[in-house]
Amino acid sequence: MQSQRERSEERPRAGWMVMGKRARLSALEVCKVIAVFLSLFPSVSLQCKILKCNSEFWASTSNSGPEEEFCTALRAYNSCVRRTARTCRGDLAYHSAQHGIEDLMSQHNCSKEGPTSQPRARTLPPPPPPQLPPDSQERSDGPEVCHYERSLPRHTAPPNYTHCGFFGDPHLRTFGDDFQTCKVEGAWPLIHNKYLSVQVTNTPVVPGSLATATSKLTIIFKNFQECVDQKMYHAETDELPAAFADGSKNGGDRHGANTLRVVEKVPGQHVEIQAKYIGTTIVVRQVGRYLTFAVRMPEEVVNSAEEGDNQDLYLCLHGCPANQRIDFRTFRARASEAHGAGRARSGAAPHGFTYQSAKAKCKERLPVEDLYFQSCVFDLLSSGDINFTMAAYYAFEDVKTLHSNSNRYHIFEKKIGNAAPRGGGILSLFLLNCLAVLLWIECCSVHL
Length: 448
Fold this sequence. Notes:
The strands form 2 sheets. The protein has a 7-stranded antiparallel sheet with strand order 3-2-1-11-10-9-8. By secondary structure, it is α+β, with helices and mostly antiparallel strands. Helix content is 37%, strand content 17%. It is globular. The longest helix is centred in the last third of the chain and has 32 residues. The protein contains 14 helices and 11 strands.
């Protein structure tokens, strides 16, 4: 970023290495080690719920209390982890939790036998009366570096904000406003720069089909100066948490911690993550069984890369690889032909959607026939899942909230295949007419 930010930037350090004040808080180390494993190995099966066990244990041990209560929470954690054994057996985070529990049991002399009531978050003692106005991170004497626009040099042009969205089957709108439909099954990076990383995992919607959708999303915010500690947000199908993986809702204990916040808009359906220190807003939704992602980010942050870092597979910046792209115009043309011939194309309408009925359904929410409308039609034809109608609708609603240029909300198909031949045909016809006229004049002059 600008030199003012670079001068005070500290060398990054692993967020999970700095623990609490007493030995008991070493339980946090287990949680954060698991968080690191989850970010490095995102291909855990959807059924593995180790993250839920981890979050519950974190919530129940986030404040000091009697040793007996800590042991009760630890036994409950152990029971939760054991219940995930069948679905998490191949997961490194699961095995790390097992070893961490054994160490903590030994360290605190906890017996494996005893009460294992479900852990619950303790009520924290009320904070002392504030000496400054509410939201102290916004006060005038706060660290300038923790407020993106205020940290920029004076008399510079306002930052250019860009948008990236990922939704549906899946469809990608890049920071450059390119619109693509992709296969990208498995784990793929959407964003990777100096300040954060975003990775999605896509799974098949219908067995044997090319249609995939996002079932898991992981966001890692890297620690930054005196503003925020390293934080991870992890969501998957039917688990859209209102907090980071460690149970917290802000950037930690640093002076600018409130410049990174998780805000729950609709429980289990809509979460917004505000990272003011880098001028970034992220929206994560669950629509039906799948997740959608949208982000507003300054162009400077978008292009910030660690030295020697390769960003070739960064989908929001470069788009999907050519071999992963789907030309849904061809798919749509075939579906339209099949409808016109009165026959259903195999796999095109597995749950009763024809090309015309899919268009009618999408028109209810997306009256403009732009690429969001076309993506909705494609998803209904390829999967038959009516929830994809709302996924396209909310993706466009997020564009209206996050995109900085209202003239670019709608994106339409480029008539690449038809424009050139049409122009070339007109030119050819014109030249032929000219030639015919010249030949006629020549013939007339000869006869005269």
